[in-house]
Amino acid sequence: MRICRFREEIYLQSIQNIKLKGAGNVRDFGGLKNKHGKMINPHMFLRGSVLNDISYGDADTLTHTYEVKHIIDLRTHTEIREKPDREIDGVEWTHIPLLTSAMLGITHEKDLDNKNVEIPELPAIYRKIVSNPFSIEKLKEVFEVICDDKREGALLWHCTEGKDRCGLVSALFLYMLDVDMDTIFDDYVYTNTVSAAKGKKAYWKVFLSTGDKSRAEAARDAYIADRKYLEAAFEEIEMRYGTLDNFMEQELLITPQVKQKMLKRATR
By the 8 A CB rule, do 45 and 146 touch? Predict the structure, then answer.
């Protein structure tokens, strides 16, 4: 547990999810420290899962306790049509899909037990996000919003489970703020505190309906945050750009000047 002081208050901050009735994988980056001992300011940047089932109380928690005023939805048009986010008064909603439906393949909980529908390989999805021109352009748009110093209130980005697209954006965000790789991966795999149970349920659903153990394992893995998925994205970046820093600067326009400005604004 990390103990940090902010605005004359004591924050007992570990990587933990915000208690919401309708979303189980939402958390604030506030309190995490970077390699220089600087703390990410609370109530500025959050990550999450789909917000279609949040209650009035959940919405109040996000807007009043965590001061969320802007949400980025990273899902496809199809996913949003099936499970649209609940509208929250006073909160701006921006749709920036990192993948198209064709690129993503199936969506979670849909067609998992249909043998005629291929379950995508997760490492390949991660590599695609950092190599496909469409996805890179969308990543750049996401970071334009993240780095917008005129934006007021906290920003929350999410996908469906809050694991893959959200997890990759979150990892790049933390890297931009000079957070060490151990903490970046700790945050990434923390999703399993919520998703592991879903993965187990998916395994048995598919196995009992198809008898196909390999497909059942693939269905389970679609819910799990495995280090090798995020590592696949980093490996793809390093193969194409040499370093993560080169990728951030060349494709996401995170120049040293932009980075220093973000460090000054987002940490203390």
Answer: yes
Range of 252's domain? 2-266
Q: Is 204:89 a contact under the CB 8 Å cutoff?
A: no
Tally: H helices and E strands in the chain: 12, 7
Q: Structurally, how many domains does the chain consist of?
A: 1
> Lowest mean pLDDT: which of 100-109, 137-146, 238-247?
100-109
pLDDT (tens digit per residue) in 52-74: 999 999 999 999 999 999 999 99
- For residues 95 and 84, give the distance between their C-alpha atoms in angstroms, rounded to a whole number: 11
Give me the CATH number covering residue 188: 3.90.190.10
Nearest Cα neighbor of 92 from 29, 49, 151, 140 is 151
Q: How far apart are the first and last CA of the chain?
A: 18
